[in-house]
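Researcher: Here's a chain I'd like modeled. Treat it as a single chain, no partners, no ligands.
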Amino acid sequence: MSSIKYKIWMLLPLMAMISCESILDKFPEDKITPETFFTTENELELYSNNFYVACISGTGVFKDYGDVIIQPILEKAISGQRTIPETDSNFDGWGWGALRDINFCLENIYRCQNEEVRNHYEGLARFFRAYFYFVKVRRFGDVPWYDYVIGSADTEALSKPRDSREFVMGKVLEDIDFAIDNLRKQKDVYRVTRWTALALKSRICLFEGTFRKYHGLNDWEKYLRECASASDIFINESGYTVYTAGSTPYFNLFGSLNAEPTEIILAKDYNAALGLTNIVQAFCNSPGEANSGVTKRFVNSYLMKDGSRFTNKSNYETIGFVEEMKNRDPRLTQTIRAAGYVRDDGKKYLPNFKLAKLGYHLKKYDCGVKYDMSSESDLPLFRTAEVYLNCAEAKAELGTLTQDDLNKTINKLRARVNMPNLLMATANANPDPYLKEWYPHVESDDNQGIILEIRRERAIELVMEGFRYYDIMRWKEGKIFEKPFLGIYFPGPGEYDLDGDGTNDVYLYLSTDKGNSSCVDQFEIGGELSLDHETSGNLIIHQSIKRVWNEDKDYLYPIPTKDRVLTNGALTQNPGWNDGLIF
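Model: Modeled as a single isolated chain. Structure tokens:
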């Protein structure tokens, strides 16, 4: 049993006591009090375990909603059906409880007399405060900054307006830089270290820099330079590298119960014996949780094994499933089911259209059939591949990227799956028209071609890791959500062999002419499955939902109305969101 799991499990009652609902509540004299706590490393460790629980939950990270993984019930941000909530107390919403706990620790940490210990745990608390505010800013934009515990009688603080994005992000940089300078360097896949802080700074600054660039805000270069600098330090000093062992290294990295420590910087730890499980495999394979698979657009973006573009084929839009899976970037068939997929029970598994209605059935994170309902596999929250991608993208957007940078970053990811190197000059000389249509805002930049290729790599490498929606937000490409969600192509009714073994596996038929078939899986076109041209074409879902993306408001979430009322309108609403309040 890992130490952090055990300590969190045993400490839950204590954390509930310390994190009481009101900051002003008095601690009973026969219990632990702030005056007698926070004095030793053990006490600081116990208290700070709460930050891991509150701030970096792995719950749902694999759902990765956006334009790549499409679920049976669309997120309202994707479907265009968001409304203004009355309240939202979630960590990734308008919830502030985690910040109170962090600031409470920072206000009392002076009680520890050991300077090294004190600095480390102050760095840890400020790491989590930086993360907390990063989550808030990317969702809401301007938010109020609090760096102290607010009492219930502090009406001025409770009613303050939002601070500017510039001010808050400046404070975030101060916090994360302090964390980098003071957190310990010892690697620990389940605890935050200096290397986690560098990775977080890389993530924060890439988001902020590109969001500012594509949304027309100032100082985007500053944040991209900070991203590149933090990434370079991590790459050159940390000793982390990409996991390359095994015949299917990318798949094996995720198909393991325990986080692989040479590449994964921080993981969410799970252990069924302690009741700590996740539904990552149920999301792919359980009728109650399963997703609708990935889109044809995403599958098209995977290169051929020789590095050429699949979409350069004249007939790429109408190539059948078996053929389109052949000779592709190996990450494609290590991410979705295709020919030769045999699980640990020795059985062959094909795409299950009942679970993946676009036909492309996810298999990433597969640790075995026994975990299909409840898994105890660790979920990566920070890994080296992301830092590589962040570094390359930041430098490409700045115009400072070199081929040597690519060789130190993205080409290591390609080498892991025996793909040819990405060549900067070649990419810029001939930008991919398919990707240009996908990302139209990358227009006149001299590095257009390489920026598009880095986005390709990012989508492929990080799928099911929780990045896609906010990547689309920072690139200002929300209009992609209006496009049809298409899957496997079928020329019409009939029997189809999905793995090329000579035996037909699925039968599609019309209600007016079912015919006879020996296929185990049989689906009525227009019934259980739909094609975009009615009797032929690509599988399609959510075609009845008219999705409209509003460029003037939808890149930020609305502020809950109850919180605006409580501040008597000091909290202003985000542009374009009309909550009916008169202030």
